Amino acid sequence: MDTRTQTNLSKLNACRQQDLDIITENMSQIIERRRNSEIFERVATNSQPLSPSIWCSPRLEAIALIWTPITVIAAVAAVLLWTSYFLTDDFFISAQ
Predict the structure, then answer these.
(1) pLDDT digits (tens, 9 = 90+) for 12-58
(2) Collapsing DSSP states into helix, strand and coil, what is residue 1?
(3) Signal sequence: where (predicted)?
(4) What is the pLDDT of residues 54-73, one digit of tens each?
(5) Contact 55, 61 (CB under 8 A)
(6) 51 to each of 48, 55, 74, how far by Cα in Å?
(7) Under a CB-based contact definition with an 8 Å cutoff, are residues 64 and 55 in contact?
(8) Helix (H) or strand (E) holding 5
């Protein structure tokens, strides 16, 4: 290799090392921010008293979480059946 090639290669290696240093610095900043946010979250959750649930009981909350979607689906199905019955009933009355 000639001296010009060696010079260019050394410049490229120096730039690559600078890029690696920047990446390492950025990663360490990200990790530090993550640690700080985790510490802040721990302090915030430990200092706040637990707010009571609107259900006042874990059992009632579990029942509500299980039966609410079922009740909503049943209500929607009932409304759809009711409206389809009245729409078809009106259609047959007006057709005769």
Answers:
(1) 778 787 888 888 888 999 999 988 888 878 777 766 555 556 767 88
(2) coil
(3) none
(4) 767 888 888 888 999 999 99
(5) yes
(6) 8, 12, 32
(7) yes
(8) helix 3-47
The two tokens of residue 3 are 């001296």
Distance between alpha carbon 54 and the CA centroid of its chain, in Å? 24
Q: Please give the full DSSP string across 46-96, using - where no structure is assigned.
A: HHSPPPPPTTSSHHHHHHHHHHHHHHHHHHHHHHHHHHHHHHHHHHHHHH-
Q: Tokens representing 89?
A: 């009933």
Q: Which amino acid, one-letter code, is at 76?
A: V
Q: What is the dihedral of CA 24, 34, 36, 41, to 10 degrees?
A: 180
**Residue with tokens 């530090």, as numbered in its chain:** 32
User: Which residue matches tokens 């409206």?
Assistant: 83
